[in-house]
Amino acid sequence: MTVLDDRALGRATLARQLLLERADLPAEDAIAHLGGLQAQEPQEPFTGLWSRLRAFAPSHLSGLLTGRRVVRTHLMRRTVHLLTADDALDWRSRHESMLRQRVLGVYRGELAGVDLDELAAAGRAVMADAEPRTMSELLRAVEERWPVAGQWPAAGRQRRALGEMLIPALVPAAQIPPRGLWRTRAGVRHVLLSAWLGREIPPPARHGTDPVGQALVRRYLAAYGPATPADVRAWCGLAGLPAAIAAIREELVTFRDERGRELLDLPHAPRPDPGTPAPVRFLPAFDNAVLGYQYRGRIIDDAHRGLSVAGERVVLADGRVCATWTTDRDATVTITPLRRLSRTERSGVAEEGRALALFLSDQDSDRVEITEDP
Q1: Are strands 3-4 and 253-257 parallel, antiparallel or unpaired?
Q2: Are 228 and 294 in contact (CB under 8 A)?
Q3: Which of 7, 28, 31, 50 has the most CB atoms less than 10 A away?
Q4: pTM of the model
Q5: Per-residue pLDDT tens for 337-367?
Q6: Is 24 exposed, middle or buried (0-12, 13-18, 19+ CB in 10 A)?
Q7: Beta bridge partners of 192
Q8: Rama region for 320: left / alpha / beta (φ>0; ψ in -120 to 50; rest)
Q9: What pLDDT was estimated at residue 145?
């Protein structure tokens, strides 16, 4: 069986993630191909798409949000993702059990004695008028039935538990604009996902079948493969995918990594030569190109793995994380190397950083600073 080392896997990731060469795709098609973009921080998807698309303008994404072609909603890993309307609806039921279990894993004590089906019905009844609501407004509407007792901080934690169980676990909701629009700061307001998109969420598949799980595996491999089943789970948070993988295994090809683990892939998906040159790319916070794997050694060193869950924005050089980056009010992009950069790498990072500064400042500034190597 062919063995793929980390460099080969890294080049495959870059190709699938549209980071080896910017793609001539509309933003909506790119979001669909990637299986959504992590969007916990509302402005980060703009950088994620700019780094991947040849002709991306911020107005494209803002228009998709206001036009309800894409939507901000909790889904994979119980985090906010930017998804196409079709994917948000089609995938929601398959994720519901995971969403509940993840909230219970944090707040089981605070939710003891709460009938979750009753809480879900109450939340949906409040939201049925399709009026935008903040979390506080939703909680006020149900707190007569589930009053919060005790003193702070216990009462605050119980209130938070009810809110996080309501949305996203029990009430499928969209975070509506202006949140998520280009260079716009706005609080979170929720509307029922089905009301916002004008279509009902398909019901779960009949017992013993998992067409959505099979589709998720195929879509994941198209955008992230070759990968292990553990990688698929790390991306979506779903534990119950072995049967879905088994059902489509005959469609797939297999490899091994350097650790002897079996890797699954689609037969005709791109697997570039490991020597293929990789350009400098700037990734936003929590980008799934890093977070979407259980084993992330194909793109980031173990010593820096914590950066990927801490919300640090990272820079790729030669296909691997080499630095972090920030921007400030005067639109200066500041790059902090994590290792010694060669003269060629430093030049490439500066050039791409200037292009990013122009993008983020609407062509007003190309200021870049690179701090000293560690």
Answers
A1: parallel
A2: yes
A3: 31
A4: 0.95
A5: 999 999 999 999 999 999 999 999 999 999 9
A6: exposed
A7: 173
A8: beta
A9: 86
Share in percent of the chain as helix, strand, coil (round to 5): 45, 15, 40
Distance CA 121, CA 312 (A): 38
| DSSP letter, residue 81 | E
- What CA–CA distance (Å, rounded) separates 111 from 48? 37
Say how far apart CA 314 and CA 301 lie, in whole Å.
12
The predicted pLDDT at position 35 comes to 98
DSSP 9-27: HHHHHHHHTT-SS-B---H
Largest alpha-carbon pair distance within the chain?
65
pLDDT at 150 over 70: no
Token code pair at residue 205: 């598949």
In tens, the pLDDT along 93-123 reads: 999 999 999 999 999 999 998 999 999 999 9
Residue at token pair 């004695």: 113
Q: What CA–CA distances, in Å, run from 313 to 244, 283, 327?
A: 34, 6, 10
Pairing mode, strands 70-74 and 80-84: antiparallel
Cβ atoms of residues 283 and 255 within 8 Å: no
Q: What is the pLDDT of residue 374?
A: 87
Beta bridge partner(s), residue 245: none
The single residue listed with the structure tokens 């699954």 is 264
Cis upstream peptide for 42 (omega within 30°): no
Mean pLDDT for the stretch of residues 250-266: 97
Contacts of 207 (CB under 8 A, 6+ apart): none
Residues 211 and 244: beta-carbon distance below 8 Å = no
